[in-house]
Amino acid sequence: MDNCDFSKAILLPLSNLVVHKFNPMNFKHFLAIGLWASASLAFAHEPYSPPYSDEDSTKKAPENWFNLDPEENKVPGVSTEKAYRTLLKNKKSKTVIVAVIDSGVDIEHEDLQGKIWVNKTEIPDNGKDDDGNGYIDDVNGWNFIGGKEGKHVNEDTYELTRLYVQLHQKYDGKSKLEVKDKEEFEYYQEIKTKFEKKYKEAQENYNYYKILRKKCAYSERLLKAYLDLSEEERLTEEYLMKIRSSDETIAEALNFEMKMVQAGYSVADFDNAIDYFESGVKYGYNTEFNPRDIVGDNYKNYSEKGYGNNSVEGPDAEHGTHVAGIIAANRENDLGIKGVATNVKIMPIRTVPNGDERDKDVANAIRYAVDNGAKIINMSFGKSYSPGKKYVDEAVQYAASKGVLLVHAAGNESKNLDESDNFPNKYIGQTQKNAENWLEVGACSWKGGKEMPAEFSNYGQNNVDIFAPGVAIHATTPDNNYKSLNGTSMAAPVASGVAALILSYYPNLSATQVKEIIMKSATNFGKQDVVPPGAEDDKKTVSFKKLSVTGGVINAYKALKMAEKKSKSLKKNR
Ligand SMILES: [Ca+2]
Ligand SMILES: [Ca+2]
Ligand SMILES: [Ca+2]
Hints:
The protein is α/β, with parallel strands linked by helices and about 575 residues long. The chain folds into two domains: about 5-50 and about 95-155 and about 310-570, Rossmann fold, CATH 3.40.50; about 160-280, no CATH class. The protein has helices at about 30, 70-75, 80-85, 160-170, 180-225, 235-240, 250-265, 265-285, 320-330, 360-370, 390-400, 490-505, 510-520, 555-570, and strands spanning about 95-100, 140-145, 345-350, 375-380, 405-410, 440-445, 465-470, 475, 480-485, 525, 530, 540-545, 550-555. Helix 11 (about 390-400) links the parallel strand 4 and strand 5. Helix 12 runs parallel beside helix 14 and helix 13 (about 510-520) packs across helix 14 (about 555-570). The longest helix is centred in the middle third of the chain and has 46 residues, at about 180-225. Mean pLDDT is about 90; it is low at about 1-60. One calcium ion binds near residues 122, 129, 131, 133 and 135.
């Protein structure tokens, strides 16, 4: 609990990996199509939203849009293709190591071959720490949420639950308080109220979606029978239009199904929602659940390192593999997708479970990355409480002292981060001192214009630096698959990729110089009127510059031009 600023414990909705298992299309969409009204249950407005699919929209995201150019292609991409075609042709580059602190990476993926970091000084599988870095057989990275015999933590609790359990043990049933505990006791009351509310919401949402799913399945069955369709056949709007029935049950089913079909949803969308809330009830808010025994570390000892195992994939590597592909997928192999940077090696550091990551692991992951040569660290995760922030901050400062850039996803709760807490962040301790090696990234959509900011993206004129593509990003997923995902989790690796690209061609630049260049060279959309994320009313626009420090979207082409100048001037002045 030390160094935790109690007064700042403002709450955010749950979310850790910014997209994990589910995609944060705005849940208001559900609300708007009237599905919520059709169940008479009291429910909590949890920001769950159904997964994105290209079919949802009449317009499709252009393929590879995140690498395209705003002027040439009319999408707010980062101009990677233009940069390769023009500025970088026949230019030499140096390999840059990018650490991906995430859920794990499928290092066997066809489009990541040759792109994974190899620790050349470590002899594989001999049970010895050959390079003496404190980690045994760490050939491709490390897994801080695994244990001996290759076991893995897959689910974990939320930090709110862990705080609640810890304080509950100390204060429950206590009638007499010592003066020194008064402040903490008040904090316990606050945590208790919040925890109980969130737990109840998760239960209600879980039940609510189960009812909706039932209703959906029932309506589909009924209407298919009426239309004499087979089970496999899809109910389309055309089919539904044919139904003429005075039967009340049919009419109600038709009304429900029409809304579903028009919005592009199906039973499967409810399955995703049910999974999400079920895991909250079963793991995230379960006060009895504690998977840390799997890791077998001395959890309270923050200075401990070396725990975990060397298996960097883990049981659920979708999120981390997607992130890795955005940064580094092979651009020349005619397979899959094209990552942003070519001369990079990904160092996977498995740290983030389904649930909230732990500060001890985050701090160790940052230190591992720095000590083993990463120049950029991608961090597509976040949470609302951070009892070990002190240790994370020290690791952030350590990274700064070694010239390593940290790229962090702003999160997907449509929140203004100037008004709510989100961890980790650039603030060191309780001061307002900023880490200069920190880049906070929001997500923008390919739609541009009024719809420039992704409707789920967090924002903040002080706390989000810049935006990058994070909607309908097609990239690598485990077992040689590919998927389109949404999230600031996807925007951060676009930014990391651009940073890596700059450093690989201009290695004499420092982390803070790369950050400055990315910020200064952004495509300025500041004057563009946009619908702010989470807005109730699409007509209430604000200028894009209100949503971030720069009011811009990252642009690799412009950044590389600026980097060339800066790099030359540094050489001259040497
Ligand atoms: Ca080692
Ligand atoms: Ca070894
Ligand atoms: Ca490829």
